[in-house]
Amino acid sequence: MLIGEVARHTGLSSRMLRHYDTLGLVRPTGRTSGGYREYSEADLERLMHVESLRSLGLSLREVGRALDEPGFAPDTLMDRLVEDTKARMAADAQLLARLQDVRGAGPSEWSAVLGVVSLLRAVESDNAAHRQTAAILAGEVRVSGESLADALLKEPDPNVAGALRWALAQRPGGIDRLSEGAADRDPAIRRRAVTALAAIEETAQVRSILEKLLDDSDPAVRRTAALTLGRRGATVAVDALVELIGAGDRDVEAAEILAGHEAHRERIVDLLVDRLGADPDAAVRSRLVQALAEIPGTAATSALQKYVCDSDQMVARTAIVILDRRPQD
Hints:
Blueprint: H1 3-10, H2 14-23, E1 30-31, E2 37-38, H3 41-55, H4 60-68, H5 74-104, H6 110-123, H7 128-138, H8 145-153, H9 158-169, H10 175-182, H11 187-198, H12 204-212, H13 219-231, H14 238-247, H15 251-259, H16 265-276, H17 282-293, H18 298-305, H19 313-325
Antiparallel strand pairs: 1-2
């Protein structure tokens, strides 16, 4: 088969076939009676091998080595090609997100397009002040919640993160990104995710994510999830709030939230006493007594009376003072 026929059958240009010949990748081994080079079946098979390897992303030099060097191992090369492909996919995903943001902003002129692009770039600036300004402006422009969530999850500066949380709370979207962040291996990213979720209006999806975080390995994540769910009346957070009181971690706030759960006061009192009442640490029992002081009703009053004779004088005195000032149930 002559070069023109090969070009027609393979879709490769005659120029590319000659280039392969020059590099020694595919050299026609036959000759016609007129002296023209002719591709044999073996040549065409090698040509198909070259194109197959090129489709994987190999350079022409790498293709030649793969075909001609007996000791050439593909492992390292395949690893590199996989990483290169992942990098390209990540870059494409980032470009797609940016294009969707620009389209979502509904620009009618190129100047508006450039304005949105500049804003998105500013959110990713190395300068924290620029990022904060961009985040504030993003709350006024229709930048997608997904992009704001992505920026927030990687934002280390607390002031910028606060501006991004405010901007994110102004619009729907971004919950799926925050859900991914809430499951990240890095606790810092999970903290950013849960703090953002705490600032967003409650939905079934938001509550579900926060409930899963009640068992998170990071105390700060558990705390934020518990306090947020507790303020929203979720009884599933009661156990975690009791643990916060025991640990002295935002215990006053946790006690005030528990006191607001009117329908479950007796159960809450029982939990507090069962978990903390016999703790050998007097500081824990002191926090228990102060938490009981926040809860109206006979159950809390009865529990407080048990600590009037506590072995620790400070705990006992605190219980006496609280009972003395407590209105009659």
